[in-house]
Amino acid sequence: MEDYIAPCFTIVEYLKTYQHVLQPVEGPANWPISDMSRPHPPAFVKMPGRPKTQRRREEGEQPKGTKLTRVGIKMSCRLCKKTDHNARRCPKNPEAGNKVNAHIKRAKTRKRKDTESASTSAVANDQAGNRSTRAKRTTTTERVTFFSYSLVLYIRQVKCSR
Question: Is the pTM of this model over 0.85?
Answer without folding.
Answer: no
